[in-house]
Amino acid sequence: MKRAFLTLLGILLLSGCVSTMNADEYSTLKIKILNLETIVKEQDKRINELQQRLSQTEKKLEEEVTNRFLEAQSKLLSEVSDLKKDLQLLQSKFEDIQFQKEAQSDLQAKTLEDINTRLSALELKIKELESKLEGYSKGESPKPNKETQANQTTTETPKVSTKEPTSNQTQGAPEKPKEKLTEADLYQQAFILFDKGDLKGAKKLWEEYLRLYPKGKWVPQTHFYLGEIYFKEKDYEAAILEYQKLIETPGPNPLKPKAMLRQAEAFLALKDKKAAEILLKKVIKNYPGSKEAKEAETILKRLR
Q1: Among 90, 123, 239, 294, whose CB has the most other CB atoms within 10 angstroms?
Q2: What is the pLDDT of residues 2-51, one digit of tens each?
Q3: What's the whole-model pTM score?
Q4: Within its chain, how far is the Cα of 169 from the centroid?
């Protein structure tokens, strides 16, 4: 449009002034018009270049903003995922610590009860000794108890018996019936035997625990350790069933991911690869970031 304007201006000038100007003036004017056209062309060219550069800059800026947004979004999603994993790990550790704390508190309560019993026995013994000392201070001779009388009779008139001792004499007095163990004592004694490697003894006590305390505090843990015993005995089907009893108990439990992983290992021992893979994937999905999930990933890589 600028070019048309300049051309029109030149025509008007030429038409209006051609009659009054000589040849030199006409050529000079024509050169000026050409120079103006050249300048306009250069300006148009520069404007086009600037528009192209502006378009490229806008495009680069848009791409950079988009890339940075995507990077920030990806980073935030990764951080949220890591935080979720840390939260699950902390929850698992908290539950484990809480369980250990409860077990320790029960053990401490039992220890305190035992100490109180011993203190009461010592107090009675001290009172008995004090009463004897009072008798000595008053000049009274202490009355012999049944044991001292028996010792005196045996020392004064010993008798030699030619008869064979009876079973009651050889074995001594009959043992007192054992007191019924508390829930905590029974569970802890079973765990001590398991820790020592006495699987039969531990299994017997844990089965007794389930019979006496079917709704006890440590029923889920008992099922897990019974599963461990069956697993070590290579009774894999029984182990799977015991692990499942723990997994099906409501609420969280720090042993659940390990029980599921052990189920997968039991299925592998039974040559059931498909069932094992399903359980391994479930461990990874339900307990991401846990030690058991990492072990499950390692086993899956081995199976592929």
Answers
A1: 239
A2: 555 556 555 555 555 555 566 666 667 767 787 787 788 888 888 988 88
A3: 0.44
A4: 59
